[in-house]
Amino acid sequence: MAKLTAEELLFRKVEEKVKKAIYEYGLIADGDRILIGLSGGKDSLALVDLLGRRSKIYHPRFEVVVAHIVMTNIPYSSDMEYLKSCADEHGLPFIVHETSFDASTDTRKSPCFLCSWTRRKALFDIAKKHNCNKIALGHHQDDIIETLLMNMTHQGAFGTMPARLKMDKFEMEIIRPMCLVEEKELIRIAAWKGYRKQIKNCPYESGSSRSDMKEVLARLEAINPEARYSIWNSMSNIQHDYLPQKKK
């Protein structure tokens, strides 16, 4: 039996993390039909690979549909044949959906917010049309921790993107199966599998506080290599008695 390479061992480790997330956070159940939003970035490509493989395993039994959303008012150079081939590799249906937004309709909101909201709404519409009850997003552990740090720093709130979010208004659940996976692991997998990066020339794209939070997280890990795990565990270990309490 051939010895596994370092990359193969890493991929198996990531698969185990996804399996752990599915069971610990109750992300997937028998009979689920899950829509993956495939942007073409390393995270969504990895998610198609991971859930595509996972859907062939006996328990839980679920189906996967893959959708790529094209924002027609933003310059794109997506390789549709390549994206479709990534879905075809696992025998998954592939849908292309076109939509757009008008940044002048609501000057109170940034174009980035309007684009994100339009994409999210399109995912809900596609999921409903194709009888999906869950939408899987490619956020990893770094995304979730960085969002927590941003909310604490800018919003004065202790909250982030949950592993599982029930949307009562849309009768849909959003799940993040890669919530325990580190970004550096996905970067290595993308290089090993040769994921092709899709080109997006967004006129609205600019630096955000997320890049600042990446630096903050890196600095915390330099101080304590276990910092990310401490931050992650803090979200389920809130010691209310040792926090300032306003008088009722």
TrEMBL record:
Q: Which UniProt keywords apply?
A: ATP-binding, Nucleotide-binding, Transferase
Q: What span is annotated as the signal peptide, if there is one?
A: none
Q: Which GO terms describe its biological process?
A: tRNA processing
Instruction: Identify the residues that bind ATP.
Output: G37, L38, S39, D43, V70, G138, D143
Q: Which organism is it from?
A: Parabacteroides gordonii MS-1 = DSM 23371
Please give the CDD domains that the UniProt record associates with this protein.
TtcA-like (cd24138)
Q: Where is the tRNA(Ile)-lysidine/2-thiocytidine synthase N-terminal domain?
A: 34-194
SUPFAM superfamilies associated with the record:
Adenine nucleotide alpha hydrolases-like (SSF52402)
PANTHER family (UniProt xref): AMINOTRAN_5 DOMAIN-CONTAINING PROTEIN, SULFURTRANSFERASE-RELATED
**Glycosyltransferase listed as a keyword:** no
InterPro entries with a match to the protein in the record: Rossmann-like_a/b/a_fold (IPR014729), TilS/TtcA_N (IPR011063), tRNA_thiolation_TtcA_Ctu1 (IPR035107)
Q: Does the record's keyword annotation contain Ubl conjugation?
A: no
A Gene Ontology MF term for this entry?
A: ATP binding
Name this polypeptide is given? tRNA(Ile)-lysidine/2-thiocytidine synthase N-terminal domain-containing protein
